[in-house]
Amino acid sequence: MAVATVNLRALTSWVGIARLFAIVLSCLAFSLVASTGDFGGPYGTWCMFTWCFCFAVTLLVLLLELLELYPKLPLSWDDFTSAFSMLAALMVFTTSVVFPSTFISSPCSGSKCARQAVATTASCLCFLAYAVEVGLTRAKPGDISSFLSTVPGLLKVFEAYVACLIFSLLDTYSSEAGLQWCVAVYSICFIITLLIIIFTIGRCLTYIPCPLEKMLVGYNALALMMYITATILWPLYSFRGRNRPNPCGRNCWWNKHLGITFLTIFNLIAYLVDLVYSTKMVFVRTPP
Fold this sequence. Notes:
Low-confidence stretches: none
Order of helices and strands: HHHHHHHHH
Number of strands: 0
Structural class: mainly alpha
Distance between the termini: 47 Å
Helix content: over 70%
Number of helices: 9
Mean pLDDT: 87
């Protein structure tokens, strides 16, 4: 008869404490917002999904480590937890910006606004908890046992997430060949980056019949060149001969295209840093 073991270090370690804070704070955030009843529309749905998703997955991770059940799962646990903590930090950060800017009115008064303000504060603290977890679990220099806990691995999660934000802002792009190319760049890089993350977590990279490290360097170089073209072409074709509408509301095309421009620049920088780090890991060997 198997006896379940309990690993209390899952709760008492610094990583465990950070996860406990994330669970409590995400639960506080979505509970307060749910009590106001004001979370309709795509932005409110996104915020509630983020808090609930992060709460549920973090609780599951904590329980699996507490009961020491994670070795039975057919995946790389360290890669999964590193990727999730990075993803959760990015999602909660976005929510901490989107929610107050969308739902908190000025001047802020009344119990409803107070609950929204507390929920925003809890969301910001939740982001800090996940950021601390990312910092605690990040691989030390020279340690590549868990790829997604290295800087290039964490950047892969960042690149995929930024691409998702770009997709959420896309509306009209079929009229210009230059914009179609940009969307192709976003899609191709997102799919390949996502496959790298999935294959890493699923321990499938060993089946690739070529040197993985050098393949990643080549892919990062290609993705960087593709994003350079998108960084130039997207604003050129998006704003050429088109002025900012007045008024320009929340769903204004001009604001969306401007947001895509900045997100494209963010991913360009991410792929550049990714290329530098991955090249250093492959071609620059530190003396023993």
